[in-house]
Predict the structure.
Amino acid sequence: MAKAIALRVLHSLVSLLAVLLFVFCLVRVSGDPLDYLLEPGASESQKEALRHLLALDKSVPEQFFAYVGQLAQGNLGISFVYRVPVTELLADRAPATLSLGAAALVLIVVLGVPLGIYSARWRGTGFDRAVRGGAAASQSVPNFWIGFILILVFGIWLQVLPTGGYGSFSQLILPAFTLAIVAIAGLIRLLRSSMIEELNKDYITFHRIKGMPERKILWKYGLRNAGLTTLGYLGIVVAGTFTGSILVETIFNWPGLGLLFVTGIESRDFGVVQGGVIVYACAYLLVNVAVDIGYLVLNPRMR
């Protein structure tokens, strides 16, 4: 098992390096940041001086290897726009993204798991059809559209929840639900399918013949075995919940990493964009490695 884990970590490091190289080159063909940093009509001497100050006068390979050397020392560079270390910017914005992701993850588990279980238990009933219909509808539209609808209904028409901002629990509700709704729908459909297959097995029938309470059968035996099937999906959900909030944070003006990433792209702030990609990529890779380890631990046949 140790060899499999080491190989998976090595693959993740190679993937991270490939992503970093791709983004490093991509941001440099997106435009010149000097057009944003300098006033219109700046002289060529001013441009050259600033380009030299930002080390943009070197070749792309030289810039890349210099940046990798900085990363090895834990340095993500300096923001062109904010003129502060990128690590400091990311540290300031991370709590907002983490709180939004944690709230969305709680909604995903609290709503997705029981709805998926009881939709399988009562399959074919009106409850099952309603849950499946809601899940299909939620997955058929992008989450930013759902966010606009929630703002329109609860923020403008009913005026019971704020439409943006950060700092209070009420401001967290709409963005958290917007971020969670698509993942809830996916979890319901996947868990329902796995639970139906599990509930048709002989050992479940045996427990029912013995008179075991249905609730115990569902939650102790059915969910435990069906949960292995959904483990990989939950790993993607966890990573996506904490790193896929770019559009949601932009819609609700939530001051997290996603909003910082968008403003970095708009202003061609290379350091912020590269730092954001590294954070997102590391989060995905770490979660994927954790899921692989979980499979090895929970399923002896994979070892």
User: Anything to note?
Assistant: The longest helix spans residues 86-121. The two ends are 6 Å apart (CA to CA). The domain at 90-267 is CATH 1.10.3720.10 (MetI-like fold). The chain has 13 helices and no strands.
